[in-house]
Amino acid sequence: MKANLIIINMHKVFIVLVYTLPAFFIFIITDNVNWLMGIILAIGNSLGGWWAVKFSVKKGENFIKLLLITAVLIMAVKLLNIF
């Protein structure tokens, strides 16, 4: 479709935010949040996201496409129990 992966990823992150926030508030209301683990996970996700953005801008879209194709192929091999 000749779409820019960075723009597509921006839309994906917004969609995830839209359905994650209501779920998060439901978990808070029902007291099902492990705050320590959640904060550690949030810090890790934030640092990983920051690093990934810097990496994708530095390396470019073609490298990200190659990395994505490689990851999909590895996952397919694993799911098909080839190795």
Total tally of structural domains? 1
Largest sheet: none
Number of helices: 3
How many runs of DSSP E, i.e. beta strands? 0
What percent of residues adopt helix (DSSP H or I)?
Answer: over 70%
CA-to-CA gap between the ends? 33 Å
Helix and strand string, N-terminal first?
Answer: HHH
Strand-residue proportion: under 5%
In angstroms, what is the radius of gyration?
Answer: 17 Å
Mean pLDDT: 90
Structural class: mainly alpha
Poorly predicted ranges: none
Tell the overall outline. Answer: extended
Record the SSE blueprint.
Layout: H1 5-29, H2 35-59, H3 61-79
Descriptors for this entry?
83 residues; mainly alpha; 3 helices; 0% strand; extended
What does this structure look like?
It is a single chain. The protein is mostly helical. It has one domain (5-79). It is 83% helix and 0% strand. It has 3 helices and no strands. The protein has helices at 5-29, 35-59, 61-79. The longest helix has 25 residues, at 5-29. The protein is extended and about 45 Å long. The two termini are 33 Å apart. The model has no long low-confidence stretch (mean pLDDT 90).
